[in-house]
Amino acid sequence: MVAASTGTELRFTGGTIPTEGDTAIQLAEVDATPDGDGLVLDHASKAELSEILAEWARREDLYRAGIGLSRTLLLSGAPGVGKTMTARWLAQSLSLPLVTLDLSSVVSSYLGSSGRNIKAVLDYAKSGPCVLLLDEFDAIAKRRDDDADIGELKRIVNVVLVELDRWPDTSLLVAATNHPQLLDPAVARRFDRSVELSLPGVGERAAILAYAAAGAPTTAGEVSPSIRELAAELTEGYSSSDVVRMWSLVMRRAVLRDAGVEAVLLEEIARIGSADPRVRDKVIGALRSRIGLSNRQIAELVGVSHPTVAASLKRTGPAKQAGQAVAH
Q1: If you count Cβ atoms within 10 Å of the first and of the last residue's Cβ in the chain, which end, N or C, has fewer?
Q2: DSSP label at 4?
Q3: Alpha carbons 248 and 270: distance in angstroms, whole number
Q4: Which of these, 75, 91, 186, lies nearest to 137 by C-alpha position?
C-alpha cells in the first residue's frame, strides 16, 4: 500500500459528519477501513489507476520537478463494472478513509439546499486526507444548456467547477457516472484523469470467479478450473457485479440443498444455456467435450430429452466441441 500523509483525521464541526440542516440525517458515509480486495479490471484501466498510486507515493519527486499529482479522477462505465469498488481499492491502497456522497439522493431529497449540502461534504472531505467518492455524478454535473433542468442544478454545476479547480492534493476526489455523455463538457475537462471501465472480458470474469471460489468455505467443496472457465465464457455481457451475484446465488443454493458448489454451478451453466436456444448447442457440446458429462447427465442438467442432446452433439461435431469457445 502507499503510505498516506500523517494526520488523516477528518475534521468538520468537531469531527462530525455534515448533516442536512438541523436534522441528524448525515450527508455522507465514511468508511475508515475500506476494502477493495478482489477488484478485477482490464489491464489498461488497472495500469492507469496504479499510476495514480505511484504519483502519490512519489509526490515529493513530482513537487521537486514542479509537477502536481492527480487530484481528481472521473470513472465512467455501465452499472456494475466496479466504479465503487475501484474507489474502495484506491482508498485502501492509499491507506485513507473513504467518504461517499450519493449525489442522486442528495439532489432528490434536499432540492433547494443541494448546493449548500454538497459544499458542506466537499469542505468536510478537504479537512483531512481521504478519498471522496461522488457517486451518480451526472445528477449534479449535467450540461448547463439542458433546458429541462431547473436553475438550482445549473448553479450547482458552477459550484462543482470551482471546487474541482481548487481541490487540494491532500485528498483524492473520485466522481463516478453511468452516463458520461450527460456531463457538462466544462466539468469533464476539469478532471486530471478520466478512466472508462468496460464490462469484464472472459479473462476478468474467470479471475472474479477464481477469487470468489478461493474465499468459499471448505465445506462447499472445490470447483474445478474447467468448470469456472466454462462459466466465465458463458457469462458474456455480464458486469462484474452480475458475476458476483451469480456466484452468491450458487453458494446460497448449495447451502440450502446441502450440495457441493460445483454441482450447483454446473446447474447454473446449464440454465444459462437452456435460456438461449442460440447457445444451447454450444453448451451441450462443452458439457460433453470439456466437462466429460454423459448424454443422460447433460439431458438432466439442461432439461431436454436424451435424443435432443444426441442431435445437438451431432450438429456441433467433435471438432467444434473441442475448439469452439462458448459465447453468446
Answers
A1: N
A2: P
A3: 17
A4: 75
Element (H, E) at 72: strand 72-76
The CATH classification number of 29-196 equals: 3.40.50.300
Residue 33, pLDDT score: 93
pLDDT digits (tens, 9 = 90+) for 87-96: 999 999 999 9
Euclidean distance between CA atoms 84 and 193, whole angstroms? 16
Contacts of 137 (CB under 8 A, 6+ apart): 74, 103, 175, 176, 177, 183
Mean confidence (pLDDT) of the chain: 84
* Highest-pLDDT range among 103-107, 148-152, 277-281: 277-281
Question: Are the CB atoms for 4 and 95 separated by under 8 Å?
Answer: yes
Say if residue 320's pLDDT is above 60. Answer: no
Cα–Cα distance list, 257 to 75, 188, 250, 302 (Å): 40, 50, 11, 19
In sequence order, the β-bridge partners of residue 99 are 30, 132
